[in-house]
Amino acid sequence: MQETIPILHQRIRACTRCVIAGYLPVAGPVVSGHRDNQVMLIGQAPGLVEEARRVPFQGRSGKLLMRWLARAGYPDESTARRHVYMTAITKCFPGKSAGSSGDRRPSRAEVELCRPWLDQELALLRPAVIVLVGGLAHERFLPGRPLSELVGRVFSSSGKPVSLRTRSRPVLVPLPHPSGASRWLNDPSNRVLVDRALDNLRLLVRAYLPKS
């Protein structure tokens, strides 16, 4: 049977690799998108709300992300969710951090277990624009660079900075994680970088926005 996005989603949602390996007590993979999406957004991992609803970016972080996507040209949340393929480095909620109210960061081993799913998503979709949200996504595609050197810039798939006029596809647009726990966004100079990143994203995705 030829692989398609709906079939791949069925396989992802049935995955229990991390449960079998002993990393999670139960699996709850989250993924959302359509075959015609030319913009892919890759986050770190679903949160507790996302696990319950099986829809990405549903909690407080999701509300800020949707405001960012509105500034990038998507007029409302339903339009953004229809036209942006939303996935993550790891597909299941990793649980809370020990001694903290924050979510646990998936281990390298968990990332590697989940990596084939993202590889297949990328191969099937072949997106023109990839939005990287948070540290794990940055490490996968643009490793070894501080956030201040990533946000506000555009990169080729090989990791080289490129201009907005580049014809190279896909292009990578890094964003910080929209978490309320992130102190990085408290710095006004960093918020300027986010503004620049969203301006860049608006220019890059305008060809893929729904026509009114």
Describe the structure.
The protein is of the alpha/beta class and 212 residues long. It has a single domain, classed as 3-Layer(aba) Sandwich (Uracil-DNA Glycosylase, subunit E). Helices cover 38% and strands 12% of the residues. A six-stranded mixed sheet has the order 2-1-3-6-4-5, with helices on both faces. Strand 4 and strand 5 form a beta hairpin. The longest helix is centred in the middle third of the chain and has 18 residues, at 108-125. The model has no long low-confidence stretch (mean pLDDT 93).
Describe this protein with a few key phrases.
6-stranded mixed beta sheet; alpha/beta; single chain; 8 helices; 6 strands; 212 residues; Uracil-DNA Glycosylase, subunit E
Number of domains: 1
The SSE string, one letter per element, is HHEHHHEHEHEEEH
Overall spatial form? globular
Question: Number of helical segments?
Answer: 8
If you consult CATH, what is the topology?
A: Uracil-DNA Glycosylase, subunit E
Give a short account of the largest sheet: 6 strands, mixed
Q: Report the β-strand fraction as a percent range.
A: 5-15%
Number of strands: 6
C-alpha end-to-end distance: 37 Å
Q: Report Rg.
A: 16 Å
Determine the mean pLDDT: 93
Based on secondary structure, the structural category is alpha/beta
CATH architecture: 3-Layer(aba) Sandwich
Strand order within the widest beta sheet:
2-1-3-6-4-5
Q: What is the CATH class name? A: Alpha Beta
